[in-house]
Write a structure and sequence with these properties.
70% of the residues lie in helices and 0% in strands. It is an all-alpha fold. It has a domain at 3-179. α1 crosses α7. The protein is globular and about 55 Å long.
């Protein structure tokens, strides 16, 4: 597994915990969906418009688009898919935003919560645990994937199973939060068990979901630090930082020919944090707080 995969997996685990909490604290399904739409769509649409708008600077074919292309791009954004436009012709990766693929799967996991609730899965903790284990096993087995014209709407099943299994692990940690003991001894044991598993294909990701998930929540709840708690406390810049990091890095590589990963990190990180802060203050905040 790459560090990028570990990071996205960790995000989906945390998201499963927080989103199930949000669902249970919502007044209705409509209230829950409204909050999720307000959080996801505005930042995504704004980022897509800005990045695609500037894409001719990095060799995209936006200038050749016609009315049908713009309509198709708008439909892609409606379904939280990044518009099918390429750039950075001289680089190895031509995607304008290679990190944006996860957003639509995140939203599908939001809808999965509603489906499981209607199916009565959340009425018993055993039901959620069964679904979570079923998804983890299905991901480890790697069922044949489907790639076709409906993938824009439904997504690739195996990829959805992967992300949903991680999401449900986080949800299970929330459901069993009163029974899961978070202490340093168990965290050390989780590290010892996890490290060799990360090098075994088919086992790495389920192991990270369960054992890595434990380490994430141990760090979140077991380590008390006012300094850490203040990070992202008032200004929720995390979503915007995630959305703009890839395009910013791509622009820096394309125009300034960065060859050192460390130098690229040092240049990209502050600019991405600034973009996330601007996105939150100028755009996202109003939609999150509006009724």
């Amino acid at each position: 597994m790459t560090l990028g995969e570990l990071a996205v997996d960790g995000f989906f685990i945390v998201s499963g915990y927080l989103i199930l909490q949000s669902f249970q604290n919502s007044k209705s399904v409509y209230d829950y969906i409204r909050k999720r739409v307000m959080r996801i769509y505005p930042g995504f649409v704004c980022c897509a418009v800005i990045v695609v708008g500037f894409s001719p600077l990095i060799g995209s074919n936006l200038a050749a688009w016609g009315a049908r292309d713009y309509a198709r791009g708008a439909l892609d954004i409606l379904f939280l898919n990044w518009p099918d436009i390429r750039g950075f012709p001289e680089l190895k990766f031509h995607a304008l935003n290679g990190a944006a693929w996860s957003i639509v799967y995140e939203f599908r996991c939001y809808l999965l919560v509603v489906f499981l609730a209607f199916a009565g899965i959340y009425r018993s903790k055993a039901g959620l645990l069964f679904v979570t284990l079923l998804l983890l096993v299905s991901h480890a087995i790697q069922w044949p994937t489907y790639i076709g014209p409906l993938a824009k709407m439904t997504g690739e099943p195996q990829l959805f199973i992967r992300m949903a299994s991680l999401f449900c692990v986080g949800g299970a940690y929330y459901e069993f939060r009163d029974r899961v003991k978070l202490n340093a001894s168990l965290a050390a044991l989780a590290i010892v068990l996890l490290m060799p598993c990360l090098f075994v294909s088919g086992v790495a990701e389920p192991a990270f979901a369960i054992l890595g998930g434990y380490l994430i929540f141990f760090f979140a709840f077991g380590i008390k630090s006012e300094s850490l708690a203040r990070i992202n406390g008032r200004q929720d810049i995390s979503y915007g930082t995630y959305l703009y990091a890839w395009p910013i890095a791509g622009f820096l590589i394309y125009f300034f020919r960065f060859s050192s990963p460390l130098m690229l990190l040092l240049a990209t990180l502050p600019l991405s944090l600034l973009a996330g802060w601007i996105s939150w203050l100028a755009f996202e905040r109003w939609f999150v707080r509006t009724k």
